[in-house]
Amino acid sequence: MTSDAGTTWRELLADTAVLLGNAQDARFVCEHAAGLDAGEFAAALGEPVTQRMGVHVRDMVQRRLAGEPLQYVLGRWAFRHLDLLVDRRVLIPRPETELVAQVALDAARAVQPTRVVVDLGTGSGAIGLSLAHELPLTGTTVWLTDVSGDALDVARANLAGIGRNGANVRVVQGDWFAALPDELRGTVDVVVANPPYIAETDTSIEHVVAAHEPHVALFADDDGLAALRVIVAGARPWLRARGVLVLEIGHGQGAAVRDVLIANEFQNVEIRSDFAGRDRIAVATT
Length: 286
Ligand SMILES: C[S@@+](CC[C@H](N)C(=O)[O-])C[C@H]1O[C@@H](n2cnc3c(N)ncnc32)[C@H](O)[C@@H]1O
Known about the structure:
Number of strands: 11
Largest sheet: 7 strands, mixed
Structural class: alpha/beta
CATH superfamily of the largest domain: Vaccinia Virus protein VP39
Strand content: 15-25%
Order of helices and strands: HHHHHEEHEHEHEEEHHEHEHEE
CATH topology of the largest domain: Rossmann fold
Bound molecules: S-adenosylmethionine
């Protein structure tokens, strides 16, 4: 890969696409190194690449070719309206989780004039920070929890990026509901969680995921249902009457999660699908 004096972004982009075997990844890498968004980068294709930017592209290409996910190489990824810091301390936020956030957002928006939302296992903060960002500044409180202190460091960094609405966010560490202060009992309007739900025995999980993303974010015992069961069983004392529980679930877990919700006396149980038509979201009310 060359980025001699006078090399333009157009030339470096073409070289990078060949090396990565992926034109879109190459564009992300070059835009990131240039510090430009897509529109600005398109306008700068004829500009020369500085030596520092060329080195940055080369470093990212090497990490990508070594197998690291693009999102960790870039150190950031888009989720709904947010541009989140992501690294190997947290799960890479997935497109289907944007739907989970939308369901929680709709439930929280229906609550007036004040609303309390809890995002359990927040990771990068993707769901909870999106809610804090998109819900009204006035009357909203969003709690972010995680068992992982490393993940909460990333969530706090992302919290700094949401501006004024960040004042509505509380960050606490601990095991699911045990992280929350006692005074929240019976007051929460919406609990949302994307817990680990992949079975330890699942051989279909992509190597790049298992090798790079945090184990605690991915895997759960009991065919992947262990964390979902704990959350469902623990949610009722925290939710107010007619409070809403929103869970991301694995495809193929819909029937089992429905049974768990019904066994725990939840009402209005629904299993909704993702973009691919697979079970992805469980919603229920107290
Ligand atoms: C699938 S990731 C979801 C991250 C983020 N909410 C998202 O949707 O991108 C699951 C998260 O749950 C956290 N977690 C795992 N076990 C936990 C526990 N016992 N209590 C709280 N959080 C836990 C992990 O650290 C991880 O951040």
